[in-house]
Amino acid sequence: MTTNSLAPIANLLQQHRVAICDEWLNDIMRIWEHSHAGLVDKEEVSRQANDFLKELAVFFNSHSGEAPAEISTNSPFGKIACELSIERAKKGFKPADTAQYIITLKNVLTRHFLRTYSETPVDLALYLRVMNDMLDRISLLTFEMYVETRERIIAQQSLSLSELSTPIILLWNNVLLLPLVGVIDTVRARQFTERLLEAITRYEANVTIIDVTGVPVFDTSVARHFMKVIDAAQLLGSRIVMTGISPEGAQTLTKLGINFSNIISRATLRSGLAEALLLVGRRIELIGGVRP
Amino acid sequence: MREMIDPERVLIRDSTDIVRARAVARQVANQIGFTLADQTRLATAVSELTRNIVQYAGEGVCEIADASGEEEIRLRIIVEDNGPGIDDIDRAMKDGYSTGGGLGVGLPGTRRLMDDFAIESSPGCTRVSIALVRRRV
């Protein structure tokens, strides 16, 4: 094919670019200002919209025939679509917002096409179809990128959370501290159990303080995890001192019917520490021999 | 007239939904004037019931509603699923009975934690309704 049947689209995009860009931005900003006030940088969006339209024109210029080729993430055009989708995902936009972005452009372009080509309905139909087809593919692409980005963010977060979730601290010779913060689920329970038992063996810990000040809800499932770790720790020769159960928590636990009779429990980490030191025959004293 | 809070429905599918359900329950309880101890009891009860859904039924719904009247403040929670149901409710309500390797105190414990407790179960529908009630002063 020598003549490019889609060149008029490219021409229109080039000639009307400023107007299209303005209308598009107006429409999209009106929607986003409600839902994402403060998150959208108008200049940034404007720059992106401009680039997007430029690439769209280039695409139609270099492309002829009816069905546009596949849009891959490697094409310059695909790259822009990905870039904006990834950015939206990182800023916490919903996938629908990015779709909205493309849909808005579609509406604006449709208006322009209708105005310019109303004399030649056959051409108009072709242009509209090709344009729609193209933007639908871009929508799909941005959606895919959005999901991928979100998944990566979530994976990163859960990785970094599990990294920092269960430190085991050697408080004093043979005394360990396991401060627990946050929701205790099966995965975390398994993780801190393994690490604690290892640490008990390595440091020959006689006493382990488990501080639960930061555990929001103490239900039977959490209790079951605790009972297991306590039993295992005691098999290895470490006594358990549990600290930080709140007054409400204590009331709830007894009502639930959970019984921690085989451990020492103290309300605060401070008294738990004193108790733990006592168990290994130490105590904290003022320098100079006066008892605190 | 005081303003009623709209009922909240939390879909329960996995363990993150348990966290969400009890956060919502805690928040509603706080809004309508329950004490911290009551909120803790409630959060624990919601945690037990919704965990049963995740463990035994796979999917269900937790509905949290303000059912207060002139005389009392009342928070009603209905936890419902379409799972296999509980074979023997009487045994399930006894301490120490569990078919899933738990401690077996979840259901009876929840009954002790709450002011109202009702359970009905048949294959395909299990529904637990609980409530916290305080007289207005």
Describe the structure.
The complex is a heterodimer of chains A (292) and B (137). Chain A has 292 residues and is an alpha/beta fold. Chain A has two domains: 7-160, Globin-like; 169-279, Transcription Regulator spoIIAA, CATH 3.30.750.24. Chain A has helices at 7-15, 17-35, 42-62, 76-91, 95-116, 121-164, 186-203, 220-235, 247-256, 269-279; strands at 169-172, 175-181, 207-214, 239-243, 264-266. In chain A, strand 1 and strand 2 form a beta hairpin. Chain B has 137 residues and is an alpha+beta fold. Chain B contains four helices and five strands. The chains are: A alpha/beta (292), B alpha+beta (137). The A-B interface holds A 183, 185, 216-221, 223-224, 227, 246-249, 251-252, 255-258 and B 15, 19, 22, 36-37, 39-41, 43-44, 47-48, 51, 95, 102-103, 105-106, 108-110, 112-113.
Give the strand order, joined by hyphens, for the main sheet of chain A: 1-2-3-4-5
Query: Roughly how many Å is the radius of gyration of chain A?
Result: 32 Å
Query: What is the N-to-C order of secondary-structure elements of chain B (H for helix, E for strand)?
Result: EHHEEHHEE
Q: What does the average pLDDT of chain A come to?
A: 84
Strand order of the largest sheet of chain B: 1-2-3-5-4
**Which residues of chain A form runs of ≥5 with pLDDT under 50?**
none
The CATH C-level name of the largest domain in chain A is Mainly Alpha
Order of helices and strands of chain A: HHHHHHEEHEHEHEH
Please, how many domains of chain B?
1
- Anisotropy-based shape of chain A: rod-shaped
Number of discrete domains of chain A: 2
Regarding quaternary structure, how should these chains be classified?
Answer: heterodimer
Helicity of chain B, in percent?
A: 25-40%
Shape of chain B: globular
Percentage of β-strand residues of chain A: 5-15%
Number of helices of chain B: 4
What is the arithmetic mean of pLDDT of chain B?
Answer: 90
Give the strand tally of chain B.
5
